[in-house]
């Protein structure tokens, strides 16, 4: 497909983030299972539920565009999640693994924040006001998730990981 307009780029980037969210939905249960800290497990499980709603929002955007969300694989997310998967397979103390899970999750969050910020800007320029609202809602949720992970890391998890040294 030739991308010769901002609208086509917008649709391609929407497909990319749709793929990313679907990959995240597959990865989160594995992270929840490996996390030993209950607060971390709860935060990851809550984010899985939020991610399902984010996918629903993307479905609404695609429906309004008359386009399919299928047909693209987010290679960036595939790589980030592969790094996280490798971490989960390491022989590592549970407290240190929890710190690593937060780091891996925040890499994902930062990618999503950058992506949704870009998409929201494209939607604004294209006059897709309803999309702007939906994308901003998701962007806010990703920012909240990142803040929650930082708070968990700084208040508890990284401190517990230090005790393992």
SSE layout:
Layout lengths: L5 H29 L3 H28 L9 H14 L5 H32 L3 H35 L2
Give a quick set of tags describing it.
165 residues; mainly alpha
CATH class descriptor name: Mainly Alpha
Ranges where pLDDT stays below 50 over 5 or more residues in a row are: none
Return the average pLDDT rounded to an integer.
95
CATH homology superfamily name: Ferritin, core subunit, four-helix bundle
The CATH level-2 architecture is identified as Up-down Bundle
For this structure, the CATH topology is Ferritin
User: Helices and strands: which structural class?
Assistant: mainly alpha
* CA radius of gyration: 17 Å
The level of helicity is: over 70%
Count of discrete alpha- or pi-helical segments spanning 4 or more residues: 5
Overall geometry comes to: elongated
The domain count comes to 1
Instruction: Count the E strands.
Output: 0
Strand content: under 5%
The span between the termini is 52 Å
The helix-strand sequence is HHHHH
Q: Mind summarizing the main beta sheet?
A: none
């Amino acid at each position: 497909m030739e991308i010769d307009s901002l609208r086509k780029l917008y649709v391609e980037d929407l497909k990319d983030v749709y793929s990313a969210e679907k990959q995240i939905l597959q990865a989160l249960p594995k992270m929840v299972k490996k996390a030993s800290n209950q607060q971390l497990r709860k935060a990851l499980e809550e984010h899985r539920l939020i991610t399902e709603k984010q996918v629903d929002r993307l479905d609404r955007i695609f429906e309004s565009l008359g386009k399919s969300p299928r047909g693209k694989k987010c290679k960036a997310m595939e790589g980030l999640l592969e790094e996280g998967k490798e971490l989960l397979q390491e022989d590592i103390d549970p407290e240190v693994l929890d710190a690593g899970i937060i780091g891996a999750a925040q890499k994902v969050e930062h990618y999503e924040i950058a992506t949704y910020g870009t998409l929201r800007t494209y939607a604004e320029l294209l006059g897709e006001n309803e999309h702007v609202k939906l994308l901003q809602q998701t962007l806010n949720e990703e920012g909240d998730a990142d803040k929650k992970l930082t708070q968990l890391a700084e208040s508890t998890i990284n401190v517990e990981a230090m005790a393992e040294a």
